[in-house]
C-alpha cells in the first residue's frame, strides 16, 4: 500500500500536470517524469500526447474521482508485482489507459488496463438566464439617418442610450443549437442633437420645433419604455464550457415584439441670467403602442454584441415622421 500511495501521488501529479498543459497548447509531445527510489531504482512515467482532456480538467473533484477509479484498478493489477520499471498514462477519448512494465518473480511482466472516466453528470438542456442590455440607439427614415438631411429630430449618435434587463429560458435542442425565449423591460432614450429641440403635438400629429426664447440649453430628449418578448435561435461553437453558455462563441438571429408602457419628453434650459429649468411632460405624442423587429448577435464567453432594428415606425402612421429605431450594443447573459 505504501507503493500504491506513491503511485497515487504520481498519478495525481500526472493528471493535474496534463490538465494544465492543455490550457497553453492543444497538442504537446510526450513528457517524462523520472523518480529514483531509495534502492536507486528508476521509475519512468510517460505522459503521452493528450488532445481530449475535457473529462480531466473540468474541476478538481472530478480529477480526484478519476484518480480513485485508476488507483482501485491499479491495486488489483499490481498485486504480487515485485517492482515497476516504467508506467505510461494516457487519455483516449473517455478512458485512462495505463501500461506497466514490471518484474514478478524475476520475470518481466507487462500489465495493460484502462478505466472509464466518463462523467455521469449530464449537462442540462434547459437553463434559466438573466440578461442586461446596454447600447446606443438611433433611428432611420427611409433607410437613412435624419442627420443626412439635417432634420430637427436628429439624435446624438453618442449619448442616446438603450437600456434593458430581463429573464428567460435557453433550451439546447442539439449539441451546438439552442433557442432563447426571453422577456425584458427596455428604454429608448432619444437625445436630440440640437438641445433646443421641442416636441409638440396637435390633432394632425407630432411636430418638432426650435426653442427661440431661451438662451442656454442643456438637454432635450424623448424616452420610450417597453415590455418585450424575444425568440432567438443560436449556434454555439469553439472551446467547451459549462452552464448557460456551453461554448466560448455563439451567433444568433431572432425576432422580438414589445408593448409601450408610456413615454415622455424632457428638457433642461435656462435664460441668460435665470436658473436652470427642468421640464418633463408625460404624454403619448402619437408614439406607436407596440414595436416589433429583428435582432442579430455574436457572443464571446458571457458577453454578446447585438444589433436590433424595429420594422415598425416609432410614431403612429401619418402622425409623425417614419422613423425605424436601431440599436447597437452589448448584452450580458448570466
Question: Are there runs of 5+ residues with pLDDT below 50, and where?
Answer: 19-29, 49-59
Q: What share of residues is helical?
A: 10-25%
The radius of gyration computed from the alpha-carbon positions, rounded to a whole number of angstroms, is: 32 Å
Annotation, overall tally of beta strands: 17
The assigned structural class equals mainly beta
- Report the major sheet: 8 strands, antiparallel, barrel
How many structural domains?
Answer: 2
Query: Helix segment count?
Result: 3
Distance between the termini: 47 Å
What is the H-and-E element order? HEEHHEEEEEEEEEEEEEEE
Give the averaged pLDDT, no decimals.
83
Task: Give the strand order, joined by hyphens, for the main sheet.
Answer: 6-7-8-11-12-15-16-17
Hey, roughly how much beta strand do the residues contain?
A: over 45%
- Global outline: rod-shaped
Amino acid at each position: 500500500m505504501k507503493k500504491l500511495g506513491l503511485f497515487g501521488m504520481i498519478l495525481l501529479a500526472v493528471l493535474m500536470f496534463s490538465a494544465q498543459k492543455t490550457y497553453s497548447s492543444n497538442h504537446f509531445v510526450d513528457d517524462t517524469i523520472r523518480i529514483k527510489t531509495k534502492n536507486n531504482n528508476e521509475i519512468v512515467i510517460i505522459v503521452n500526447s493528450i488532445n481530449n482532456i475535457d473529462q480531466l480538467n473540468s474541476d478538481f473533484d472530478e480529477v480526484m474521482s478519476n484518480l480513485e477509479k485508476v488507483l482501485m484498478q491499479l491495486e488489483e493489477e499490481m498485486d504480487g508485482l515485485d517492482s515497476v520499471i516504467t508506467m505510461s498514462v494516457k487519455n483516449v477519448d473517455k478512458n485512462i489507459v495505463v501500461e506497466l512494465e514490471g518484474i514478478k518473480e524475476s520475470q518481466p511482466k507487462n500489465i495493460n488496463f484502462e478505466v472509464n472516466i466518463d462523467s455521469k453528470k449530464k449537462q442540462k438542456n434547459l437553463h434559466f438566464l438573466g440578461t442586461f442590455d446596454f447600447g446606443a440607439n438611433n433611428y432611420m427614415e427611409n433607410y437613412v439617418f435624419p442627420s443626412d438631411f439635417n432634420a430637427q429630430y436628429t439624435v446624438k449618435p453618442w449619448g442616446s442610450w438603450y437600456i434593458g434587463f430581463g429573464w428567460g429560458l435557453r433550451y439546447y435542442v442539439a449539441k451546438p443549437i439552442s433557442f432563447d425565449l426571453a422577456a425584458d423591460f427596455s428604454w429608448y432614450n432619444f437625445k436630440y442633437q440640437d438641445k433646443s429641440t421641442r416636441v409638440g403635438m396637435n390633432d394632425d400629429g407630432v411636430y418638432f420645433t426650435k426653442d427661440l426664447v431661451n438662451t442656454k440649453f442643456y438637454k432635450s430628449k424623448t424616452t420610450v419604455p417597453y415590455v418585450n418578448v424575444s425568440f432567438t435561435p443560436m449556434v454555439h461553437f469553439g472551446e467547451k464550457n459549462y452552464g448557460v453558455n456551453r461554448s466560448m462563441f455563439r451567433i444568433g438571429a431572432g425576432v422580438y415584439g414589445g408593448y409601450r408602457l408610456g413615454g415622455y419628453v424632457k428638457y433642461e434650459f435656462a435664460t441668460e441670467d435665470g436658473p436652470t429649468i427642468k421640464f418633463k411632460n408625460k404624454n403619448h405624442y402619437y408614439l406607436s403602442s407596440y414595436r416589433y423587429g429583428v435582432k442579430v448577435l455574436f457572443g464571446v464567453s458571457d458577453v454578446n454584441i447585438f444589433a436590433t432594428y424595429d420594422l415598425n415606425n416609432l410614431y403612429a402612421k401619418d402622425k409623425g415622421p417614419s422613423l425605424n429605431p436601431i440599436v447597437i450594443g452589448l448584452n450580458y447573459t448570466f
